[in-house]
Amino acid sequence: MIKISPLNSELSECPSCKSHKTTTKKILFPGIHVVADSVCNACNLEFIQDLPVGHGCYYPVSINKNTEDVFDHFSIDWFTQNFIKSYFNKQKIDVSIERIIKKNQEDVIIINCLDYLYGHVLLKLFNVQFYKEKHPDLGLIVIVPKNYLWLVPRFVDEIWIVDLKLNQLKKWYTSLSDSINSYLTEYKTIQLAYNFPHPYTENIQIENFTQVEPFALDKFESQSLNITYIYRTDRLWHRNKMEYFFYLAFKKLNLLRLVEWVFMYVQNRNIGKTEAILRKSFPDLVFNVVGLGKKGNFKGRIIDKRVDLPTIDIEIEWCKTYAASHVVVGIHGSNMLLPTGLAAAFVELLPIDRTGNLTQDVITRYTGRIALFMGRFISDKSSAHLVANQVKAIYTGWPLFDLYTSPSNHSYDLDENQTFLNVLRSRVRLLFKS
């Protein structure tokens, strides 16, 4: 963590002479970034520097305050370039902050979860559990956009709610920084969480965030197959490369709006066909479609839970739907985070240009071979038959897989566990009969 009160004067490295003999005069909180306003005691350079918070851990940027020269070794459009643009176009509007103080604490950790991307906010928020477990003696202050208040765990001591929409959080707000700095005087010591953008998810207790218990594996075999497709209108399930080529061509020519209905029809047909294939094998199948955008309709017995504009109540209901699902299916993206954290298993349709982001959009509830069995990635050009077969393989294969691999089913002392082995073999026979 980074101690910012009392202020550690040597928080920054001079971007010019690389000296660590710097003095940080002030910490700025303009939005996504937490910034050190510093001066180098070796070369007298006055500069601001992105502190290692969130993606700033990996892609720090510095700007000379006098010449406005930029020190950016990464030139990442969505992060470093956005930081630079926001600094040179500061917003003068007043930003509203609401403080919910559940418990007064003198020594605190600030966890800044502000971001302009939905999934980034969620992933930053998941760090809260780590800091609670590692530093139970310190108070937790979480800064979140207003629409994420419902996901903040109840054990957090303070919540600072920023009334800005996600797309507004790309910008630099001087009033936001001034307000936050005025609050900091109320505490004895303040540390800033690194808030890693891709936290370790295997130990995340998703119910602390959603207030919904995830699917219990001990009920996997006893319930009829329940599937939820996570729907998107901006990233689609295509049938083949040629179709995807035409989709990109129309998009580049700004003509997609004229033919968008065709691609939506194809996606809806893929979803409907998957449901029909599975229902032949599982007549009691429950098949939900959840997501943003009600474009087109579905035939058959698909339960359509899509909306154009979600409310908190709808999002909570969606979470309950995920938690009742054996398998969630969907295109790669942050839309898969909560579903994969609550469902028993997932099948993700992965575009080839997103292979570098593999697993960043899912919560892996398990470790080892179970994680590989329950989480599957296939091409976004896959057929409905392939998707249905993957779902079927998980649902029908889990009982035997669990029997073979569960540590509780392994015993090496045959003399004392002969009865146990007989029970185990009986279960195998029953599984093969079914």
Report on this model:
With 434 residues, the protein is an alpha/beta fold. The chain has a domain at 208-405: Rossmann fold, CATH 3.40.50. The chain is 33% helix and 19% strand. The protein contains twelve helices and 17 strands. It has helices spanning 77-87, 118-125, 127-134, 174-184, 207-210, 241-252, 256-281, 312-323, 337-342, 368-374, 384-405, 418-433, and strands at residues 2-5, 22-28, 35-40, 46-50, 62-64, 70-71, 97-101, 107-112, 139-145, 158-162, 189-192, 226-231, 286-291, 303-304, 327-331, 345-350, 375-379. The protein has a six-stranded mixed β-sheet with strand order 1-11-8-9-10-7, with helices on both faces. It has a six-stranded parallel β-sheet with strand order 14-13-12-15-16-17, with helices on both faces. A five-stranded antiparallel β-sheet has the order 2-3-4-5-6. A hairpin with a 6-residue loop joins strand 2 (22-28) and strand 3 (35-40). Helix 6 (241-252) packs antiparallel against helix 7. The longest helix has 26 residues, at 256-281. It starts with a strand and ends with a helix.
Question: How would the blueprint of this fold be written?
Answer:
Elements: E1 2-5, E2 22-28, E3 35-40, E4 46-50, E5 62-64, E6 70-71, H1 77-87, E7 97-101, E8 107-112, H2 118-125, H3 127-134, E9 139-145, E10 158-162, H4 174-184, E11 189-192, H5 207-210, E12 226-231, H6 241-252, H7 256-281, E13 286-291, E14 303-304, H8 312-323, E15 327-331, H9 337-342, E16 345-350, H10 368-374, E17 375-379, H11 384-405, H12 418-433
Parallel strand pairs: 8-9, 8-11, 9-10, 12-13, 12-15, 13-14, 15-16, 16-17
Antiparallel strand pairs: 1-11, 2-3, 3-4, 4-5, 5-6, 7-10
